[in-house]
Structure formats: structure tokens, C-alpha cells
Amino acid sequence: MQEQMASVPFPSSDRRWKLVESAMRRHGHRGTALIEVLHTVQESFGYLDDVSLRFVASSLHLPKSKVFGVATFYDFFRLKPTGEHTCVVCMGTGCYVKGSDALMKTVERVAHVKAGETTPDGKISVMTARCIGACGLAPAAVFDGEVVPRMDSAKIEDQFRKWLDSETHDVALEDMPGVHRIPHAEPVLASV
Ligand code: FES
Q1: 137 CA: nearest ligand 1 atom
Q2: What is the pLDDT of residues 39-83, one digit of tens each?
Q3: Residues 130, 177 within the same domain
Q4: What is the pTM of this model?
């Protein structure tokens, strides 16, 4: 099959889009890569939102309805951050050798959650990623969508304690801009 280069501009200057683009390029921007690409988006950003789904649809030359349908059909895709705050700790090789394992241990000690979990009070969702495209800044983490360079245990503990001690804002996540769910989406993977 002929390889097709992406011509879709990134939604923002966030370098994590380069990871998504790499995943798509590995598959020649073919629609069959949809699931893997969505996994890459989720690993990089923590969840799939309207912007990322539209970007993936355009880049893979798929109807948006198909991409939204797959994203909403499978339970393993999240369409919104489940916690009030999100923390993604990069566990890629570049970050791992610089101590991201210790960062996760700090997270577990301070917030009593593991990767993929949300604190019982709904304040923080913790995720890990294989690489967030900021290896020169290792070890890196992403706090509420912002890449934070050269993370250490003291810094991550400080941020978590601030979040945990903060007043809970009554955020209606369903009403967040960019979060859309297609209520009766059909599984469309077989026809991708
Ligand atoms: S390995 Fe962590 S940013 Fe690349």
C-alpha cells in the first residue's frame, strides 16, 4: 500500500503531538492504525478529547464519526480526565534511567494511588506514559497538560500535596469543552 505523509498541522505546539505523528507515520497513516494511534494519544495526553480525535481522523483520512465511534466504544479509552487534576509520569527509558521509578514511588506514598488510578476524593488521576517526547528534559511529567521538566521526588510531592490540600472545585467533567461522547456509537473497527 502506498505510504501517505501527513499534511495535517498539529493542534498545538505541544511536542507530544510528535509522538502521535510518529505512531501514524509508522503505519503509513493508514486507517488500520487507528486503535494503536488512539492508544498513543491516550498515553501521551492521558485521555482522548475532541481536538485529538479530530486530528487523528484528519491524519488517518477517516470519517470523524468512525474515530469517535471507536473511541467511545472501547472501555479502555478515556474521553475525559477522571480526576480534577491529572499527572502523567513518563516511564520511557530516558526518564526511567533518571529516576521516574522513584517519582512513581513518591506518588504512591503521598497519594496512595498507582498508575491508572484516581484518588478516592477524585482530585488526582495518575497515569504513566512510555515517552512524552521531552527526553532532553528527563525525568519529565505532565501536570494538567503542562510538561514539567527535570522532576524530582520533592517537586512531585509538593505538587501532589498542593492538589490534595486544595478546595475541590465542583467541575462538571461532562460539560468540559472538547469532551464529547457519541451515545449510541457502533463498533466500527472491522470496517476501518
Ligand atoms: S523517555 Fe521520558 S520524555 Fe522521552
Answers
A1: 3
A2: 999 888 888 998 999 999 999 999 988 899 899 888 788 887 778
A3: yes
A4: 0.62
